[in-house]
Design goal:
Blueprint lengths: L7 E6 L7 E5 L4 E5 L6 H18 L4 H4 L10 E5 L4 E4 L12 H4 L2 H12 L1 E3 L6 E2 L4 H9 L5 E9 L6 H10 L4 E4 L2 E4 H6 L6 E10 L5 H14 L4 E4 L5 E5 L3 E2 L6 E2 L24 E5 L1 H4 L21 H14 L12 H9 L13 H10 L5 H8 L2 E5 L15 E2 L5 H6 L2 H8 L8 H19 L16 H15 L5 E5 L7 H16 L3 E5 L3 H6 L2 E6 L8 E6 L1 H6 L4 H7 L2 H6 L12 E9 L2 E9 L3 E6 L5 H14 L6 E4 L6 E4 L12 H4 L3 H10 L1 H6 L23 E4 L7 E4 L10 H4 L2 E2 L2 E2 H5 L3 H7 L4 H12 L16 H13 L10 E5 L7 H16 L3 E5 L3 H5 L3 E6 L8 E6 L1 H5 L4 H7 L19 E7 L7 E6 L3 E5 L6 H18 L4 H4 L10 E5 L4 E4 L12 H4 L2 H12 L1 E2 ...
Parallel strand pairs: 3-20, 3-21, 5-19, 19-20, 25-33, 25-34, 27-32, 32-33, 38-53, 38-54, 40-52, 52-53, 58-65, 58-66, 61-64, 64-65
Antiparallel strand pairs: 1-2, 1-4, 6-7, 6-18, 8-11, 8-12, 9-10, 9-11, 12-13, 14-15, 16-17, 21-22, 23-24, 23-26, 28-29, 30-31, 34-35, 36-37, 36-39, 41-50, 42-45, 42-46, 43-44, 43-45, 46-47, 48-49, 50-51, 54-55, 56-57, 56-60, 59-60, 62-63, 66-67
C-alpha cells in the first residue's frame, strides 16, 4: 500500500550498463527488482538509489566525519528527486567489532538490561540467600513483627584522631544527642565528659522505642536518623547493649555488612563502564601470551630452539641465558620439551622465585614478556608481541563480560549471561512465561524483547543465541539479523535496500520473511529487494524487471507493474517462468533410477554440532539434494562429516564409500574475491595456454618476452607506472575515492612493446576484450581454454569479456564462475569424483538456474556423484534423490526426517514435502508480527532525559511542528537529546562500527519507547561565529572542497621561478627524452648532455663532491654552466652559490633504447630523482624529475594533500602568522627579532603572506582556467561565489583528471548557489566569520542544510530565526515550507511569535524552567493553545507585552553643543566594510537599539567600529579620537566598555555559575567557620573542589570519572568514592542549616536565595539571577551545559552583582559609567524571560550606564529610548542610516523596514 508521500523519482540513470532509466517508487510499497543475473538490478538499486540516499544523508555530517564514513559515489544519473535516507541490508558481514553480538545488533541487550533490572533478585555472594532492598519503612516494618519489644536505635560515632575527647562529646551534645553506651550501660553523654571517657568510638542513642504499630512513624524516623548520622550504617541494640541487628538502606549482606548497588540497567550492560568486567572491559576475553605460540613444537629440545621467542637475533641472548641456567640447574638441553618434568617446565616459565634484577638468576619466560610489554610503544616490539599473543577467556568474569556483582542478580535461577546463551527459540519460550504487570510502561521492555525474538524466529534464526558474536555470522545470517534490527528500530520514511534476503532460507521460512518485509513497508518505508524467489515476487506490491539480457545488452526496464500484470507480460522472462508453473513438470520429469545394486556413501554413528548418532546412506553417481530448514544440520552433514571424513581423519563418525573417488571437491558458500586484478579467464584457469602461445610467437622472442610477461599482475610486460592496474586511485577524503586512467598506459595495463606482440592478429589487450562467446571458436585449438570457456558459455556467461574485472560482476555471475572453475576440474573417463556444492543457485534467476541444472545433470551423466545443499524448489524437483534434515533447527534438528525421490518426498508432510507439493509456495504472508501501517505520528513514551518529567506525546509527521516554552523548560532536551539523538542513532547503526567511532556518538536517550521516527538531521543553534581562522569558505564547506580539488588536480609551481614542477615516472621521462633526441638530432657539432645535479645553490669549494665523482669513474662535471675535468679539480669560490652537475653521458647521435634506459636510470639515481638534458649551445635545457623536486633549486616539495592547503594545519599555514593572516601581540615572542615584526600593530596584516594565511609552497599551488588564467587557493577565495563558479566551470585539466573534478566541482557549485539563493552572493569566501552579522551567519548555516534534496527526513531546528530581521524571517518560513513540501517533517524549537503562529502544530513545554519544567503544558494547533490559561506562551500570544514596561520612554538629552556634552556619543566618517562615511550620534545613559535587515552593517558599526573605538578612547583618554576607519567623540567618558557575548563562561566541569559570580569563596568561608570545622582544622580551602584538601581525590573533585571503553565513546561515570558529591566524607559530614557543601551546590538559585536570605550580599546576588530568569539553574551546574543565552544573562548578572554593597550600609564610591554592548541577547529566550531581560537592561541604564543592543526582537526594540536602523538591504548596497530617533516616531517613518513589524506590537 503506497503512502501519500512524494514518490522517489529517478530520471536518466546511466550507471554502468543502465540505459537512461526513469523510475518512480512510492514509500509504503514492497518493491522487487528482478531479472537475469548481470542485467543491472543491483546497479539500479545499490549504485543509484541507495548510493544517492546514503550520500545525501551522510552529507549532513561534517567533512571531518564524512572522511571516515563509507561514502558512495555520486551516481551517474540526470536527477533523483525526493530521495530518502537509505540503509543497505546486504549479504555480507562487515562487523569486526568483538563487542557486537546479535543482542546488540537488534537492541535486545538494551531491553534485556532494563527488564532484568526490574525482575531479577540479588543473591548474597556469602550466604547464597536472596537480599531485599531496605528502606527506613521496610526496616521499621520488620521490627514491628517483634511485637512489644524494647529496642535501642542508634549509631557508632567515631572520634577524629586530632579531636580531644571532651570536644568530641561536646559536639555530640550540640548536635542534639543526649545518651550513649559506655561499659554496657546507657548514660548521659554529659556525664561522660566528666568521667574521663577516652575511647575512639561511642554508640550514640537516637531513640528507645517499643515495637508497637502506633510507633511505626517514630521507628521509621529513628532508623533514618541513625543511618544518616552513622554514615549509612545504624544499629539496633537491646537493653544490655548487645547488637541485635544492623540498620542500613539499600542492599547489604547481613553476614558481612558488604554494601551492594541496587539494580541498574547499566549494571547489566557489557558496553557500559558501570556493568562491564573491569579486567576485560566487557569483551569476555583478554589478550595474553599464548604458550602454544611461544613453544609451537614441543618435540624440540631447548637446544633445538623449542622456545621460539628466543630464536631471533634481537632476543637471542635470552636463549644463551636460559642455556646457562639449565646447565646450572641440571635441566637437560637435549630432550624434547614435552619430556621435561612438570617442575622443570614450570621453572623455565615462571623463573626463579628469588629472582631480582641483576641477581643473575633466571627470570622466566613470563617475566620476559612482561618486560617486553613495557616497550610496546615501539612498533617492532608490538609486531614481536603479536606473534605470541592469543585471546583467552577472561579469568575474572569467566567470559560472562559483566562485573562480579552483576552476576549475583538472577531471574528464575539464571543470570543474564546465562539467558543470553540460550537459543533464541528457548529464550523466547522462557521469557514468554513471564506474566505482564498490566502497567504499559513496566511491560514495555519485556514486550519489546518478545517481539524482537519473534522477528528473529520469523527469519529462521531461532537456532542462534543472542550472545553470538556478530563477526562470526555468515553473510545471510547477518542480513537477516540486520533486517529484524531495522524492523525493531521503528524507522519510517527510509529506503531499505535488500540483496536477496531469501538466500539460505528454506521455502517454508520465506513466508515469515515476507511478513517482516511487509511490516517494514507498512511502517511507511520504501522497501526495495533484489530477489529471484517466487514467493517474494508474488508478495510484491510492484515488480521491476531489468533486462532483456545480461551485460551490455541489459540495463533496460523489461517490465514494471503489479504481479498480476507480470504474469500476463510477454516481454518479461520472469513472468513467463512464473506463469507456466514449472514445478510439477520438473517433479515428474524422468529421474535416474536407484536399483538395489546402486553404490552408496555410508555414514555411521556420526555426531557433530546438533547431529547425534546419525546413520544414513546416500546413493552415488546421482544428483542428491540435502534439504531442510535453516540450522537443521545440512552443512554439518556435508562439510564436517562427509567431506572431512573422506579427505582427512574422520572425527565426527565413520564415512565409507562403495566407490573409490578420483577426487572429492567442495564448493562452499565462500565468496569469490572481487579483485580488479582477476577476471573470468584467469579465475577459471583458462588463461595459461593463451599466455604460453603469446610467449611462443616470433615477435615475443625477438623482444625478449616470455609467457610470464603477458600478465598484468607480474612480469616485465605490464605497465610499470600503474603495476598493470590500468588506473590509479585518487583518495578523496570525505568523498568516494576515484579511479583515473594511468597517465602512461592510458588504461591498457601493458607496455606498448608488449601490445606489439600479436597472436592471430590480436594483441594481449584485444584478447582480453573478447567476449567468452567470441573466444570459444577462436581458441578451439586450445583444449583446456576451450573446455573452460565453453562451460562458462553454457551457464549463460558468454557475454562477459575475458578480462572483465571480477569486482564489476554481480553476485549471480560470480556464483556461476566459481561453480565452473571447480566443475571443469572433473575429468571424463577417469575414476568418478564426488562434487559437494553448497547452494549453487545463490543469486541466480530462474532462467539461470535452468542453464545451471543442465550443466549439473551433465556432470552426473559423466559418472560423477553430486551432493547439493539446496532450498530452491526447481533444483529439488530435478534431483534424483533427496535427504531431508530436521525437523527443526539447532538442538531441534540434526535428524533425518525423510529420504527418497522428489515425488515421494512431495507426498510427505515435511517442510520440503510441502514445498515440492506446492502447498508451501505462494502462501499468504504471516502477519501476526506485522506492525501497524504508518499512522503519520511520531510516538514518544516515557521521556525522562534531563528535566523531562516522564512525558509521552504523539507528534504529527510531515508537518511544521514548533516546540516552545520558557528557557530551560526542556524544549531542547526533547527535540535534540531525545528525538534527534534516537533518529540519528538508529540510522547510524547501519554504518560500520569503524565509521561510528568517529561520529559524535549520541547515547541512547532516557525514554521508554519511540516509534514512527524518521532519520533525523539537526540544525542546531550556533551563536558563536568561530575563531579568527574561521571564514565564510570554511563554514559553507566550500574551502574544504576547494582544498581537496587543489590537492588532487592542482599544479605545484616553483616558489623560486613560478614554473610548474616537472614530475613523471621513469618510463615517461624515457619517452620524453626519446622525443627530444629525435627532434634535436644530436651531432658532433651540437651534442646533448645528460647531467645529474648534485649541488644546487650552495656555497663552498665543493672539492670533496667532485673527488667522489672522480672515484666513481666520472670524468667531467659542469659547474655553473662550465665543464671541468674531475681529475685535478681545484675547487670553486667558497663564498659564492654554485650549481654542480655530473656528466652522465654525452650523445653525438641517437643512442639505442637500452643504453638510454640505463643512462637515465643511473642519472636519476645520482641526482636524487632529478636529471637534466642540456645542449652545448644552451638552447636545450630540460629538467626531469620523478619526485616533487624543484628543478630550479633542487628543493623537495611535499606531496599535495588537503592539509597542505589548510591554514589550520602546521603543514599549510604561514609560519609567521600561523594561519591567521594577521599578526597579534601574543605571537611576537615567536617572531624573528627584527624591527619590522615588532613595530607591527596588533591585528595588522602579516607582511610575509600578505594576509593569505598559507606558506609559500601552499600559495604556489594553482588551477588554470580560461585563457590560461590561474588562481591559487587564497586568490580564488577572494572572489565572489559567482566568479568562483565561472572559473571552476572552465578549469583546464588533463583528460584523465576530469573525473576527479567532476566529483568535486558540483559539490562546490551547489554550495555557492545556496549562498546566492539566500542573498549572500556579495560575500567573499575569505571573509572572517567573526565579522559576519548574526543574520548572515545564520543564513549561511541554514542554506547549506536546507538546500538538500532529501525527503522523508525529520529536520530538527533550534531557533532558526536567530539573527534574522522579521522581513528575512518571512523568507525563512517560506524556505521551511518548501522543505516540508518535499515530504519532510519539521520540528522547530522556537520563541519567535510569527513562527509560532505559522506552525501546523504547537507543543508547549513548561510550565517553568529546570526541575519545575519538563512537562507538556499544551499541545495542538496554535489557536487552541492560545486559549490555555496555564500556558505562558498562550498568555503572551493572547495579550502580548505592554510597552514600555516602565510606563514611559526616557527622554533624549538636548542636542545643543552635542560634541561638547558627554550626553552624546558621536561617530563620524566611519568607513568599515559596507559603511561609507557613516555618521551618527547615540545618546548616553539610555537604552539604544540598533536594528535593520540582516547584513545591513549593524555588527560592523557597533561591534566592528564602535566597540574597539571606545576601548581605544578610554585607553588614550582622548575625548576626540581619529582612527584609520573613522572618528569617535566622547568615547572616553566611560570607565570601561563590555561586550556581553554568548560565548561559554567555562569549558570544564570545574567551572560553575556560583564560581563565575564570585560568591563561592564567601560560602566556603561561612562553612569553614562552623565550630566543628574549626575543631577539625578545616579552612575555606578544604571546601574547594578544585584543590587538594577536602575534595575527593579519586575524581579530583569532579564528581565523575572518565572511563575509556575500547571501540566505544569514552564515558563519564559517577565517582564510586564520593558518589558524585565531589568531597571527602568528613567534609560532607559538616552541615550548615541541615545542608552539607555538596547539597548547597545542588541548590537552584531560587532555593539558594531563600537558604541564604540571612546574608545581604548572597541574597541580592542570587536575586539578580532570579531576575534574569536563571533561578532554575543550580549553583554547581557545569558551565559547559549552559546555553549561549544563559551564559550571556549570567555575565550580565555578574556585572550587576558588582554594584551590590557587600556591607549593606557602606556607601559605594561613584565611578564612571560603563558602556554595555549586546548582540541579540534574546537568543534562546521565551517571552517571559525576555521581559526579565528588558527589566535587567533598564536597571543597568537606571544606574547611569549606557546600553546598546543589536536586536531584531520587536519587544526589545519597542523598549528602546533611541533606535537607529540600517539598511535598506544587506551587503555593499546596505550600510545606510534609514532612521535614528525615538521609538514613537519610527512608526510613521516610510523608509523604515522595521516599522511595519513594530506597529503590530505597539498598536
Amino acid at each position: 500500500m503506497a503512502s501519500n508521500h512524494s514518490p522517489i523519482q529517478v530520471l536518466g540513470a546511466k550507471q554502468n550498463n543502465l540505459k537512461n532509466i526513469n523510475l518512480e517508487l512510492f514509500p509504503g510499497q514492497l518493491i522487487v527488482f528482478t531479472g537475469l543475473s548481470g542485467a543491472g538490478k543491483s546497479t539500479l538499486l545499490f549504485d543509484v538509489l541507495h548510493a544517492e540516499g546514503q550520500r545525501k544523508y551522510v552529507e549532513t555530517f561534517s567533512p571531518y566525519i564524512r572522511q571516515f564514513l563509507e561514502t558512495l559515489q555520486r551516481p551517474e544519473v540526470d536527477s533523483i528527486k525526493n530521495i530518502r535516507p537509505s540503509i543497505a541490508v546486504e549479504q555480507k558481514n562487515t562487523v569486526r567489532n568483538s563487542r557486537s553480538t546479535i543482542g546488540t545488533m537488534t537492541e535486545l541487550c538494551d531491553y534485556f538490561k532494563v527488564w532484568f533490572s526490574q525482575v531479577a533478585t540479588f543473591f548474597d555472594p556469602d550466604s547464597g540467600k536472596p537480599l531485599k532492598y531496605q528502606t527506613g519503612e521496610s526496616l521499621a516494618a520488620d521490627l514491628l513483627r517483634k511485637k512489644n519489644s524494647n529496642v535501642i536505635i542508634g549509631f557508632i560515632a567515631k572520634k577524629p584522631k586530632t579531636l580531644p575527647s571532651k570536644e568530641f562529646l561536646s559536639f555530640l551534645i550540640q548536635a542534639g544527642h543526649a545518651r550513649g553506651l559506655h561499659r554496657k550501660k546507657y548514660c548521659h553523654i554529659e556525664d561522660l565528659i566528666h568521667s574521663g571517657w577516652e575511647k575512639n568510638e561511642l554508640f550514640v542513642v537516637v531513640d528507645r522505642v517499643t515495637t508497637k504499630k502506633e510507633n511505626k512513624d517514630r521507628l521509621t524516623e529513628a532508623i533514618s536518623v541513625a543511618i544518616k548520622h552513622g554514615h549509612g550504617l545504624g544499629e539496633i541494640r537491646d537493653e544490655n547493649g548487645n547488637t541485635l541487628n544492623l540498620l542500613y538502606e539499600g542492599l547489604r549482606s547481613p553476614s558481612t555488612g558488604h554494601k551492594f548497588s541496587p539494580a541498574n540497567p547499566s549494571a547489566f550492560s557489557f558496553n557500559s563502564s558501570i556493568g562491564a568486567c573491569p579486567k576485560c572491559k566487557g569483551f569476555g576475553k583478554i589478550i595474553e601470551i599464548n604458550p602454544n605460540l611461544v613453544i609451537p613444537d614441543e618435540s624440540l629440545s631447548i637446544k633445538e630452539g623449542a622456545i621460539k621467542a628466543f630464536s631471533g637475533k634481537i632476543y637471542g641472548h635470552c636463549q644463551d641465558e636460559l642455556v646457562r641456567v639449565c646447565k646450572k640447574e641440571k635441566i637437560s638441553l637435549n630432550i624434547p620439551w614435552n619430556k621435561l618434568s612438570r617442575n622443570e617446565r614450570e621453572f623455565i616459565w615462571q623463573g626463579d622465585p628469588d629472582y631480582q634484577e641483576g641477581s643473575g638468576k633466571w627470570y622466566g619466560i613470563k617475566s620476559f614478556f612482561s618486560w617486553v610489554e613495557k616497550k610496546a610503544y615501539k612498533m617492532h616490539v608490538r609486531v614481536f608481541l603479536s606473534k605470541y599473543r592469543g585471546y583467552f577467556e577472561c579469568p575474572e568474569c569467566a567470559g560472562n563480560r559483566l562485573k562480579q556483582e552483576s552476576m549475583h542478580w538472577k531471574w528464575k535461577s539464571c543470570t543474564l549471561p546465562e539467558l543470553y546463551r540460550l537459543s533464541i527459540d528457548d529464550l523466547f519460550e522462557k521469557v514468554s512465561s513471564h506474566e505482564l504487570s498490566g502497567d504499559p510502561k513496566s511491560d514495555l521492555a519485556i514486550e519489546s524483547i518478545k517481539s524482537r525474538l519473534s522477528y528473529l524466529q520469523d527469519v529462521g534464526l531461532g537456532y542462534l543465541s543472542i550472545d553470538r558474536s556478530a563477526k562470526s555470522l555468515s553473510g545471510g545470517e547477518t542480513q537477516r539479523v540486520n533486517l529484524t534490527a531495522c524492523l525493531g528500530s521503528s524507522l519510517t520514511d527510509t529506503l531499505f535496500a535488500l540483496d536477496e534476503p531469501t538466500i539460505g532460507l528454506h521455502g517454508t521460512d520465506v513466508d515469515r520473511l515476507i511478513s517482516i518485509l511487509r511490516a517494514l513497508a507498512d511502517a511507511g518505508n520504501c522497501v526495495c529487494v533484489v530477489e529471484h524467489d517466487e514467493q517474494v515476487i508474488n508478495a510484491a506490491d510492484k515488480v521491476i524487471e531489468i533486462g532483456p539480457s545480461p551485460g551490455t545488452n541489459g540495463g533496460k526496464i523489461s517490465f514494471e507493474g503489479s504481479v498480476a500484470q507480470l504474469l500476463k507480460s510477454r516481454n518479461s522472462i520472469t513472468g513467463q517462468w512464473l506463469s507456466k508453473q514449472s514445478l510439477p513438470e520438473f517433479l515428474h520429469f524422468p529421474k535416474r533410477k536407484i536399483p538395489k545394486n546402486t553404490p552408496y556413501l555410508h555414514v555411521s554413528n556420526a555426531s557433530c554440532h546438533n547431529i547425534t548418532n546419525l546413520n544414513v546412506k546416500l546413493p552415488l553417481s546421482k544428483l542428491v539434494c540435502i534439504a531442510g530448514v535453516s540450522g537443521s544440520g545440512k552443512s554439518t552433514l556435508l562439510h564436517n562429516i562427509i567431506y572431512e571424513g573422506l579427505t582427512s581423519s574422520p572425527t565426527c563418525g565413520q564415512v565409507r564409500s562403495d566407490i573409490n573417488f578420483e577426487e572429492v571437491v567442495l564448493i562452499d558458500q565462500s565468496s569469490v574475491a572481487r579483485s580488479p586484478r582477476s577476471n573470468p579467464v584467469l579465475y577459471s584457469d583458462a588463461w595459461g595456454p593463451i599466455r604460453e602461445a603469446l610467449g611462443r610467437t616470433e615477435s615475443a622472442k625477438r623482444l625478449g618476452f616470455s609467457a610470464s610477461d603477458f600478465s598484468f599482475n607480474s612480469g616485465n610486460g605490464r605497465c610499470e607506472a600503474c603495476s598493470g592496474l590500468g588506473y590509479e586511485i585518487v583518495e578523496m577524503q570525505f568523498l568516494s575515492d576515484i579511479q583515473i586512467p594511468c597517465n602512461y598506459c592510458h588504461g591498457k595495463r601493458f607496455k606498448d612493446e608488449t601490445l606489439a606482440v600479436q597472436l592471430g592478429e590480436l594483441n594481449v589487450l584485444d584478447i582480453l576484450n573478447l567476449t567468452i562467446e567470441d573466444a570459444v571458436p577462436r581458441f578451439k585449438d586450445f583444449p583446456k581454454t576451450n573446455r573452460k570457456l565453453s562451460s562458462l558459455k553454457k551457464v549463460g556467461l558468454g557475454y562477459l569479456t575475458l578480462g572483465q574485472p571480477l569486482n564489476t560482476l554481480s553476485g549471480g555471475e560470480l556464483q556461476r564462475l566459481k561453480l565452473i572453475k571447480y566443475m571443469t576440474t572433473l575429468k571424463k573417463g577417469l575414476s568418478p569424483s564426488l562434487l559437494i556444492i553448497d547452494e549453487p543457485t545463490t543469486g541466480l534467476h530462474l532462467e539461470d538456474v535452468s542453464q545451471l541444472m543442465s550443466c549439473l545433470q551433465e556432470i552426473v551423466a559423466n559418472g560423477h556423484s553430486l551432493f547439493i545443499i539446496e532450498h530452491h524448489s526447481h533444483v529439488l524437483a530435478q534431483a534424483d534423490w533427496i535427504l531431508e534434515m530436521g525437523p527443526g533447527s539447532g538442538k531441534y534438528g540434526g535428524q533425518m526426517i525423510s529420504k527418497g525421490s522428489p515425488v515421494a518426498i512431495s507426498k510427505l508432510k515435511t517442510p520440503t514435502g510441502s514445498i515440492l507439493s506446492g502447498k508451501g509456495l505462494g502462501r499468504k504472508a504471516n502477519t501476526k508480527n506485522c506492525i501497524n501501517r504508518k499512522s503519520n505520528v511520531l510516538k514518544i513514551e516515557g521521556a525522562r532525559e534531563n528535566n523531562l518529567q516522564n512525558i509521552s506525546l504523539n507528534i504529527p509527521t510531515n508537518q511544521f511542528v514548533v516546540i516552545t516554552g520558557p528557557s530551560g523548560s526542556g524544549k531542547s532536551s526533547l527535540a535534540f537529546d531525545v528525538i534527534f539523538a534516537e533518529g540519528q542513532r538508529r540510522f547510524m547503526e547501519s554504518m560500520s562500527s569503524y565509521a561510528r567511532q568517529f561520529v559524535e556518538q549520541l547515547g541512547k536517550p532516557a525514554v521508554d519507547k519511540i516509534s514512527g521516527i524518521s532519520p533525523t538531521v539537526a540544525i542546531e543553534q550556533r551563536v558563536t561565529r568561530g575563531t579568527k581562522k574561521s571564514t565564510v569558505g570554511s563554514i559553507t564547506e566550500v574551502a574544504q572542497f576547494l582544498r581537496l580539488l587543489y590537492a588532487r588536480v592542482g599544479t605545484q609551481l616553483s616558489v623560486k621561478d613560478g614554473k610548474p614542477l616537472s614530475i613523471a615516472s621513469e618510463s615517461e621521462i624515457l619517452l620524453q627524452i626519446e622525443k627530444v633526441l629525435s627532434k634535436t638530432k644530436p651531432s658532433k657539432t651540437n651534442p646533448l648532455f645528460l647531467l645529474s645535479p648534485v649541488i644546487t645553490s650552495r656555497k663552498g669549494h665543493h672539492k670533496p663532491v667532485v673527488n667522489w665523482a672522480r672515484e666513481k669513474g666520472y670524468e667531467f662535471v659542469r659547474c655553473d654552466g662550465q665543464f671541468f675535468q674531475t681529475e685535478g679539480f681545484e675547487g670553486l669560490d667558497r663564498y659564492r652559490l654554485h650549481d654542480i652537475e655530473i656528466l652522465q653521458e654525452k650523445w653525438e647521435d641517437i643512442p639505442s633504447k637500452q643504453i638510454l634506459k640505463n643512462c637515465l636510470k643511473n642519472s636519476l639515481k645520482l641526482g636524487n630523482g632529478r636529471s637534466l638534458l642540456s645542449s652545448e649551445d644552451g638552447k636545450t635545457s630540460i629538467w626531469y624529475s620523478t619526485t616533487r623536486v624543484d628543478s630550479a633549486n633542487g628543493e623537495s616539495y611535499p606531496e599535495l594533500e588537503p592539509s597542505l592547503l589548510s591554514w589550520n594545519s602546521g603543514r599549510g599555514w604561514c609560519k609567521f602568522c600561523r594561519g591567521y593572516g594577521k599578526i597579534y601581540q601574543w605571537m611576537k615572542d615567536d617572531l624573528p627579532a627584527t624591527g619590522k615584526w615588532w613595530k607591527m600593530e596588533d591585528g595588522e596584516t602579516c607582511i610575509e603572506c600578505k594576509g593569505e594565511r598559507l606558506n609559500p609552497i601552499s600559495r604556489n599551488i594553482v588551477l588554470y582556467g580560461k585563457g590560461n588564467q590561474k588562481f591559487s587557493l587564497p586568490h580564488l577565495l577572494q572572489l565572489t561565489p559567482e566568479e568562483i563558479i565561472q572559473f571552476l566551470q572552465n578549469i583546464k585539466l588533463a583528460q584523465r583528471l576530469q573525473s576527479v573534478a567532476t566529483a568535486i566541482v558540483p559539490e562546490i557549485v551547489e554550495r555557492l548557489q545556496f549562498m546566492k539563493k539566500v542573498g549572500l552572493d556579495y560575500l567573499s569566501l575569505d571573509r572572517e566569520t567573526s565579522s559576519l552579522s548574526g543574520g548572515e551567519a545564520q543564513r549561511i548555516r541554514l542554506a547549506a542544510q536546507l538546500g538538500s534534496n532529501l525527503s522523508g527526513v525529520l529536520y530538527i531546528l533550534d531557533e532558526p530565526s536567530i539573527g534574522l530581521h522579521p522581513k528575512d524571517n518571512q523568507k525563512l518560513l517560506l524556505s521551511l515550507r518548501n522543505l516540508q513540501a518535499k515530504g519532510n517533517s519539521l520540528l522547530v524549537v522556537e520563541h519567535d511569535p510569527e513562527t509560532i503562529l505559522q506552525a501546523d502544530y504547537l507543543i508547549d513545554i513548561g510550565p517553568e524552567a529546570g526541575r519545575n519544567g519538563g512537562q507538556v503544558v499544551g499541545i495542538g494547533k496554535p489557536q487552541e493553545l492560545n486559549k490555555l490559561s496555564d500556558s505562558p506562551t498562550g498568555n503572551y500570544m493572547r495579550h502580548g507585552m505592554k510597552h514600555p514596561l516602565l510606563g514611559h520612554w526616557r527622554s533624549l538629552p538636548s542636542k545643543t553643543k552635542v560634541n561638547k556634552s558627554d550626553n552624546w556619543l558621536t561617530l563620524e566618517k566611519v568607513n568599515f566594510r559596507n559603511l561609507k562615511n557613516f555618521k551618527i550620534k547615540i545618546p548616553t545613559a539610555r537604552l539604544s537599539v540598533c536594528c535593520g535587515v540582516s547584513g545591513s552593517g549593524k555588527s560592523s558599526l557597533v561591534r566592528g567600529f564602535l566597540f574597539p573605538a571606545v576601548k581605544e578612547a578610554i585607553s588614550q583618554k582622548k575625548p576626540h579620537l581619529k582612527l584609520d576607519n573613522g572618528t569617535i567623540i566622547n568615547g572616553n567618558i566611560f570607565n570601561k566598555v563590555i561586550e556581553v557575548t554568548q560565548n561559554p563562561i567555562g569549558k570544564t566541569s570545574r567551572s560553575t555559575p556560583v564560581t563565575y559570580l564570585g560568591v563561592w569563596d564567601k560560602i566556603r568561608t561561612m562553612i569553614s567557620s562552623l565550630p566543628e570545622a574549626k575543631a577539625k582544622g578545616f579552612s575555606s580551602s578544604h571546601f574547594s573542589f578544585n584543590i587538594k584538601g577536602g575534595r575527593c581525590e579519586l575524581c579530583k573533585g569532579a564528581g565523575r570519572i572518565k572511563v575509556e571503553m575500547s571501540f566505544l565513546p569514552n564515558s563519564f561515570v559517577q565517582c564510586s568514592e564520593c558518589k558524585g558529591k565531589r568531597y571527602k566524607e568528613e567534609i560532607l559530614g559538616l552541615y550548615w542549616n541541615s545542608k552539607n557543601i555538596s547539597e548547597i551546590l545542588d541548590l537552584t538559585f531560587e532555593e539558594a536565595a531563600e537558604f541564604f536570605k540571612f546574608d545581604h550580599f548572597l541574597f541580592e546576588t542570587f536575586s539578580i539571577m532570579i531576575e534574569t530568569g536563571l533561578g532554575y539553574i543550580k549553583l554547581g551546574q557545569m558551565s559547559p551545559t549552559l546555553s549561549g543565552g544563559e551564559a550571556q544573562r549570567l555575565k550580565l548578572a555578574s556585572e550587576l552583582a558588582l554594584g551590590i554593597d557587600k556591607q549593606k550600609h557602606r556607601k559605594l564610591l561613584k565611578s564612571k559609567p560603563t558602556l554595555y554592548i549586546l548582540e541579540e541577547p534574546t537568543i534562546g529566550l521565551h517571552t517571559l524571560d525576555c521581559k526579565k531581560l528588558i527589566l535587567l537592561l533598564h536597571r543597568l541604564v537606571d544606574e547611569g550606564n549606557t546600553v546598546i543592543v543589536i536586536e531584531h526582537d520587536t519587544d526589545i526594540i519597542s523598549e528602546a529610548d533611541f533606535i537607529f536602523e540600517l539598511g535598506p538591504v544587506g551587503g555593499m548596497q546596505g550600510g545606510k542610516l534609514l532612521y535614528n530617533g525615538i521609538t514613537s516616531k519610527i512608526l510613521t517613518d516610510k523608509k523604515s523596514l522595521t516599522a511595519p513589524f513594530l506597529k503590530k506590537v505597539l498598536d
